[in-house]
Design a protein that fits this description.
The chain is α+β, with helices and mostly antiparallel strands. Among the domains are: 242 residues, Lipoprotein localisation LolA/LolB/LppX (outer membrane lipoprotein receptor (LolB), chain A), CATH 2.50.20.10; 143 residues, Glutaredoxin (3-Layer(aba) Sandwich). It is 40% helix and 24% strand. The strands form two sheets. The chain has a twelve-stranded mixed sheet. A seven-stranded mixed sheet has the order 14-13-17-16-15-18-19, sandwiched between helices. Strand 18 and strand 19 form a beta hairpin. Helix 5 runs antiparallel to helix 6 and helix 6 packs parallel to helix 8. The longest helix has 63 residues. The termini are far apart.
Length: 587
Amino acid sequence: MFSSRISGLWRQALSFSFITITACLMIWATQSRAQSAADQGQRRELSEKLRQESVDIFQKWQRTWDASDTVSLNKALGLARQSIKADTSYYAAYRHIAYVLNAMDKRKEAIAAAEKALELDGSIQDAWLGELYYKDGQREKALETFKNRILLDPSSYAFYSDVRDYLGRCDFSPEEIKGVLSLYDPTRIEKPEVLERSAALYQSLHGYRDTTTAELHIVRPGMDNRMTFSFVFALERPNRLRIENRNAPMGKGVVLFSDGKNLVSHNEMWKQYTQKTAPEVLSTAALRVQPSGLAEDALVPKILKMLLSDAPLKEIMEGVEKVEEVGHEQLDGIPVTVVELTQRAGSLPGSTGMPKPDALIGLRLWIGSRDFLIRQMAYEVDLGKMADEKMPQQQREMMQGIKIGYRFKHTAIETNPVFSDKDFAFTPPEGAKLVEEFISPEVAEKMSGLLGKPAPDFVLQDLEGREVKLADFAGKVVILNFWATWCPPCIKEIPDLIQLYEAYKDKGLVVIGISQDQGGVELVKKFAAAHKVSYPLVMGDPPVSAAYGGISSIPTTFIIDRQGKLVDGVVGSREKAYFEKKIGSLF
């Protein structure tokens, strides 16, 4: 009995001791974790401080992009390494050092650092890493990285446009590019039924015709201007089309016909027309035949893109972040549902050259409540709110108070009408000339007078203020490109020019970009750094432009052979293959 009681007391004592020890261990562990968290916080704080110091030095170096300034780069690299040492789990430190290492041409180390950043935080899947893989010869890994970037959020236009820009710097096939970009799916965004039914209707149509009235409304202090013009639009799948609006203001007249055999575009102002074989199936890409790029122009409403697409809902949702039904109205006696699409400015019709392409703008659609036809589309841009802080102060001030509004109204709508061959037949107007590419008669005359003659020499300053002479490149093949940072076609062809320069510079090719910008050299420097332009850039001046026939449109590009003679000159952007063909026999 006594023994049993002692045993029970002993068990209670042991139990109490166990509980006490466990409690002490728990308190110690909690304190230890708290201390560990505090230590981690201090390490992260120090790491971020060092990283930011490195970022400041690196960004200052980027503004000059001076490869000879190894002191700044090494200092930025040293601070970046200290940042990682302070906190080896900080993804941002690895991501930053990857940029510095790449600038120092240490690509393998840059890739390893970028991969480590991705390992620590998968949500930072970076399209830039895809470009690194591509430059390192890892094509499949590059494509996989681009795909993963979009798949982080397939409905994000920001991710999609980011990948699209980087893909443009690489030499992938159209099929490979399509395979990546097709992953973008903005239709996942919640949307009203009326929009879905409208898209389904346009997808089902075999033919369509309407009269579209376009209105451009510009308001600025002391001025209120409206320009209105109409054009006839008709489409019969798969490849018959008519878009015709003659005598439009600002030289925006468009005459485009496809009779199923030939695709004809007529420039009314210059009395020229082009004729090419019509594609079996029309697409917006096939319509980029106007000097301004018809499919990207403000004159072409989204309804055309919807009709030309095999996925109209995806087409109309491109760039959209949010959709909501905002009301019901009567439009010309027809009940309509008003839907607002909040989307990126760069995806809007007429948005080419928008100061802030990622800014959100409200695009409104007036959709028939019963027939689901789009009757009207409109949006407005306040340029004052679009002013970029990086712009010169004078330019920002000029944009204040300026508003630009676009409105498209569709009337006389016919769905699945009965067409005749006459509806799509083009008869060249009297005096119209068939040309391969559009070019103003004045420029064509001046350019033809230059070809075959010695290229006019010049002395211009590069982005560091150093003198650059054409004579410095005697004995080399030269591509002379007149361009500007605000020119979308110029920007479009820059990746091709970079690739040409990198591929053929060892054979004796030089690409020289002559900037027509008026915003100063710093603006061009920032652009060159952001777009990683590797060939020489110089600041243009009027005498040089005049010597080359008067540069009235950009891009304008000349090719100079090893003997210093002008052998080719073109106005407008060209694909990489065009220049490769022209320079191939010159080396």
